[in-house]
Every structure is written in structure tokens, then in C-alpha cells.
Design goal:
The protein has helices at 4-18, 30-34, 96-116, 146-169, 189-205, 210-224, 231-240, 309-312, 326-366; strands spanning 51-53, 56-61, 85-88, 92-95, 124-129, 132-138, 251-252, 297-303, 320-322. With 367 residues, it is α+β, with helices and mostly antiparallel strands. The protein has one domain (4-366).
């Protein structure tokens, strides 16, 4: 049986879908379509609370937001936006910067897909350098409909966000000489990315202008995810997972800052929820879009030399990978994480034994 609360939420979602009948992607000029957005549009929000920065005494970083102050959405960034992490009881921590970036990439890719039907020069597009040169090749049929174009845009946008996490694990960084491996696959990253993709697809389908649609849909989704009201409540939730998901005693950019990482599973994303933070409805599970459209594009990356290609792909002879290789790379990352965890555990066990031995020696000397 469906409860009255669940019926209310379903009714709200049906209203959203009913009002989403006409495509209203942001208008982009031919030149803008030829120029992909930056790999990172908005400054990323680091996971954790009260984190110091190496070499900067007394400074503590905490990136938080609240639904009441997050501001209106602006395609590729806007002055009214305030981004940061916000806690939701059904979706875990949501990184608004990641979410907005992925929504805007979805909107851009939708424009690119539609434009490529008339302009064959857009079939192969260079989309920047991140861990290597990235190239998107579209294989879109002439008769693709708007629904499939949106789904395809969302599929590619999520793959690009997943590549960002992979690339940062292997040394890619936005700021030179400031490695971002400390934030690769943070507990909130992938879920925030995929939520942004879904909201981007919904905004494109809305009969409202894109920015207006995104502003409304984002607020509505956060309410449906049972977001907390204030930054202070998000801070309280963040502190509850200190020394569980992250270690506030470490400083940026220590690789030991994150204690738990959320690597990409094969199908849907289940949010990580803070223990003790109860919700009315169950966790909000996100499905990846456009799985059936995977053959309509190829995202290829010519890897730089930070990637141990021979270790990851024993039978590979070149350094070019596609989205079809992501699972293999992620499995390699998981094995590296397991190895690092085992070494850390062994180190801690040796430390405990040394302390126990010292105590026994001191006790023996005293007697």
C-alpha cells in the first residue's frame, strides 16, 4: 500500500512531468555550440568540515549551503548562485556546484546533439584536456527524437563527470601543483553529478526558460529529498561523519583526508545517509540515463603519462581509452584503495603492538 505522503510526492512529480512538455534548452549561438564549457564551471566544494590547508596556519575550510540562500541558477554560473554542500535526509550530501555543472553540461550537450544533425563539423568535438585530450564523437541518427536527445545528453554528461573523478585520482588538477586526489570519488560526488544530470534533462523539457526551470526544479527536488533548513544543520550532519567518512585532522591536499570513497557501481546510485538522520520516505535512488543509447557516441581520451596503462590494461598497446574502459579503470582504483587501506591497517596494528611492548617493558623494569 502507498502511504498518503508517498501519494503526495508522486503527485508533485507528476505535475513536474506534466509541465515539462516543451523543450526549452538555453539558446546557444553556433559559435557557443562549437565551444564546450570549461571542465569545471564552478569552484568545487570540498567534502568535510573545518579542514585546514597545508602551509596556511589557522585557516579552516567548510563549504556549506542552504536552500534559502542558494540563489537562482545561471547557465555556466551566475552571480546569484551560492554553492556548497547541503544535507538531505533522502539523498545524503548534495554538492550544489557539482550538480549545477552537470545540469549545464547536459544542456550544452543537448544543443550539440541537435546542432550536429545539421552541421556535420560538430560530429567530432574536442572537449578539453583532463588527464589527456578528450574527444567526443557522435553517431546520432537523423530521426532521433527530443526524448532520446535529452537522454543521450544526460548519458554523456554523466560519463564526463565520472571521467573527472577518474582523472583526479591519477593526478589531474584544476590548480597547478595542488593535487585533487584527496577529493576523488568523495561520498557525495557521483550522486550530486547524476542528480544534476536528471535536473538538467527536466529543465530542458520544461516550458520555462532554462535558468528559471533549473531554479524551480532544484528547490523542489531538495524539498522532496527532505533537505535540512540551515547551514548549521548541514554542519551538524557533516560533523557526525568526521572520522568515519573523512578525517578533519588532515589538511588539504592530504590523500588521507577522505576515509571512504564512493566508486561508481554498474547501474543505479544509492545515496550515503548519515547514521541517525532519519527520513520520512526511503532513500531516493538515481538511475543512470540513456543506457540503451550507449552506441550513439564515443568519448575517447588520449591518456597522459600519469596513467599506468600497462598495469591497468595488460594487453593495451596505445594510450587511448573510451567510456567502455571506465569500469576497468575504476576496478584498478578500487584495488589501489584496498591496498592502501591494508597498508594503513597494518601500520596501525604495528603501532599498537609497539605501544603494548613498551608498556610491558616499562612494567617489567619497574618490577
Amino acid at each position: 500500500m502507498i502511504s498518503q505522503i508517498e501519494k503526495s510526492v508522486l503527485f508533485v512529480l507528476l505535475i513536474v512531468l506534466f509541465n515539462s512538455s516543451f523543450a526549452k534548452a538555453p539558446f546557444l549561438t553556433p559559435e557557443q555550440v562549437k565551444t564546450p564549457p570549461p571542465k569545471i564551471i564552478r569552484t568545487c566544494c570540498a567534502f568535510g568540515a573545518n579542514i585546514g590547508v597545508a602551509g596556511v596556519p589557522f585557516y579552516k575550510k567548510t563549504d556549506l549551503a542552504a536552500i534559502s540562500t542558494m540563489g537562482a541558477h545561471g547557465f555556466l554560473g551566475g552571480k546569484e548562485e551560492k554553492n556548497g554542500n547541503i544535507y538531505t535526509r533522502r539523498g545524503g550530501f548534495i554538492d550544489l556546484g557539482h550538480l549545477r555543472d552537470c545540469a549545464d553540461w547536459t544542456a550544452y550537450l543537448y544543443n550539440l546533439i541537435k546542432a550536429s544533425k545539421a552541421n556535420k563539423d560538430l560530429i567530432i568535438t574536442k572537449i578539453g584536456y583532463e588527464g589527456g585530450e578528450k574527444t567526443l564523437t557522435l553517431r546520432v541518427p537523423e530521426n532521433i527524437d527530443d526524448d532520446d536527445a535529452r537522454e543521450l545528453a544526460g548519458k554523456i554528461a554523466y560519463d564526463l563527470s565520472l571521467w573527472h573523478e577518474i582523472a583526479t585520482w591519477f593526478g589531474a588538477s584544476y590548480v597547478p601543483l595542488f593535487p585533487e586526489r584527496f577529493s576523488s570519488f568523495s561520498p557525495e560526488d557521483l550522486y550530486s553529478n547524476l542528480l544534476g544530470v536528471h535536473l538538467g534533462m527536466m529543465a530542458i523539457k520544461s516550458d520555462k526558460e532554462y535558468n528559471e526551470a533549473m531554479t524551480g526544479l532544484l528547490a523542489e527536488m531538495l524539498y522532496n529529498l527532505e533537505c535540512v533548513d540551515t547551514e548549521e544543520e548541514t554542519l551538524e550532519a557533516m560533523i557526525k561523519v568526521d572520522n568515519l567518512w573523512y578525517n578533519s585532522q588532515k589538511r588539504f591536499p592530504s590523500r588521507k583526508l577522505l576515509m571512504k570513497r564512493y566508486l561508481d557501481p554498474e547501474t543505479a546510485l544509492i545515496p550515503w545517509l548519515v547514521p541517525g538522520e532519519t527520513s520520512i520516505l526511503p532513500p531516493f535512488i538515481l538511475k543512470k540515463p540513456g543506457v540503451q543509447l550507449a552506441g550513439l557516441y564515443q568519448l575517447s581520451i588520449k591518456l597522459n603519462y600519469h596513467f599506468p596503462v600497462k598495469d591497468i590494461f595488460t594487453d593495451e598497446s596505445d594510450r587511448i581509452v573510451t567510456q567502455n574502459d571506465f569500469d576497468t579503470i575504476i576496478n584498478y582504483i578500487q584495488n589501489e584503495i584496498n591496498t592502501l587501506d591494508d597498508k594503513e591497517q597494518s601500520k596501525n596494528e604495528r603501532s599498537v603492538k609497539r605501544k603494548e611492548n613498551r608498556k610491558r617493558e616499562e612494567k617489567s623494569s619497574a618490577s
